[in-house]
Amino acid sequence: MTHGNTQADIGARTRFGFQRHADQDRAGTDIAMHPVVVVGAGPVGLSLAIDLAQRGQPVVLLDDADRIGEGSRAICFSKRSLEFWDRLGVGQRMVDKGVVWQIGKIFHGPSLLYQFDLLPERGHKRPAFINLQQFYAEAYLVDRVLELPGISLRWRNRVIGLEQRNGHVVVSIETPEGVYRIGASYVVACDGARSSLRQMVGADFAGQVFEDQFLIADVKMTAEFPTERWFWFDPPFHAGRSALLHKQPDDVWRIDLQLDRSADPVAEKRPENVRPRIARMLGHDQFEFEWISLYKFQCRRMARFVHGRVIFAGDAAHQVSPFGARGANSGLEDAENLGWKLDRVLRRTSPETLLESYHVERSQAADENIRESTRSTDFMAPNSPYEVRLRKAVLSLAKETEFGKRMVNAGRLSVPSTYDSPLSTPDVDAWRGGVRPGASMRDAPIATPESGLEYLTDAFKAVGGGFTILEFANGAVADWPDGVGVVRIGGISDAIETFLARYDAEPGTAYLLRPDGYVAARFRRPTRNAIDAALQRASGNS
Amino acid sequence: MVLATSSNFEKPDDAFRAIVEAHRGLSDEASADLDAALVLILANHIGDLEVLREAIELAKRRMLEVSQQQQQQQ
Predict the structure, then answer these.
(1) Do A393 and B37 touch (CB under 8 A)?
(2) Measuring CA to CA, how many Å separate A268 from each of A123, A252, B39?
(3) I need a surface site. Which of A38, A466, B20, B44 has the fewest CB within 10 A?
(4) pTM over 0.90
(5) Is B28 helix (H, G, I), strand (E, B) or coil?
(6) For residue B55, is pLDDT > 90?
(7) What are the structural domains of chain A?
(8) Strand A288-295 and strand A213-220: pairing?
């Protein structure tokens, strides 16, 4: 593996030494007790820790390494992830550094087959996607963690044992200065695809293994390609296979090449073997390697994400193929879904059973992500001669038909899942579209510039990230429950036309948003009783 | 059942003939390619997943029965 300059540039902030914590000096059975221990300081664990700390929960965050992950790895972060990161106070930094994009182009052989726009509508604060090396995302999250007094981030702390007791979990931790133990009301395992905590709770991790091999090369070069996602089926430079080209910050380009199933991984990974392939693709060899990796993948999930007081999130709980940017983004959605629920359970404002809804909602999302990414993978690497034939038909029909273009599957990119959830209050009024209960809120311009807030996502963040009523004014001043934030969209005017359309709103309409920005309920003429009931339901109290 | 199985063509022989002629002179390979494209075009024209699933189910049931009978005769 070759390392270029990029990661070295932020190296000063990516290596962290072991620091002995006072918890380690406690004698015998007098172990330190903590509300939450998060295991794994990747994007998911870091984001969850920040969310919990912002909600007032002290968090112990453990990681077995002494540095953030190497290599660019996940590079595509979705609008939804950026909206979550905005609430964590890191969204703008990610966007400022990232490469903003929304157009994808698909080529067949030498020619352009079609292009798609992932965010064809205007009026969103955040773009469809940014590309950003995972190590930048992690470095920015670590910086944010260090600003928050509530998080104890402990590097070179490897979890080697878990014991579930009545009411808490005892975590055994190995460090360079020996083993110590702490207790936690809840442990959240964000320790990645090879999760050791998953093995400790004895959970299986079943799914489909794909035999196809893909080569990732990040190359540094100055190039004139636009900031779009380019995907080729059967390109002239890589006959019979697929290829992907995508821009990252710092003049780094992600190249992803499908290899033969029988290709020798050790040989294929050698820079002298990778170089000619890339040179054929780019038409020159004026580039340096930043990172080379060869991977096969699996699509699988745990049967249950909640094992007593140990809860699994991100790759530890589910794994998908990389086509569709559904790995890191779905892990971040897990964190967003879990943070507020865990906070409420720890405060005893919701019963422990609220955590079951995390499993219900996020396992639905995992199934969807696995289904979508499996379909993309099967289209890119057909399994039988007939599948090859069918794909050939789709690609040839795509040249002149719209339906054929839409059937070409070069990755369906991550969008937030809609939940069939026990927390949702079913609609009783008539709606023509809008955002239904169980779906994620859609951003829109709110046109109250005097407050300095331009978008719904800004206003939602400003009211504090708890349950929030989004109401469309009709003159009456409503009596909403204590502790619930209110975003009031005043007067029906052209300036909020987009908003009214996106929410199918009329004067008097109200939406109840959960702390993760999902719609819990909506009403044409909300009553205090109806709002109270929806609130009880969404917080797991009924 | 939402799949129509009563005859829709005024002259079914014309429809059958049109498909036969489309395949005349093609290799097995080219015929199979043509059929694959036809399936996709017609499926999109129908535009109803339930109808498509019923059609697949019917075709599969009948073709599997036929191939079983042929195996028994051999």
Answers:
(1) yes
(2) 45, 21, 39
(3) B20
(4) yes
(5) helix
(6) yes
(7) 24-97+130-207+299-370 (3.50.50.60), 379-407 (no CATH), 445-538 (3.40.30.120)
(8) antiparallel
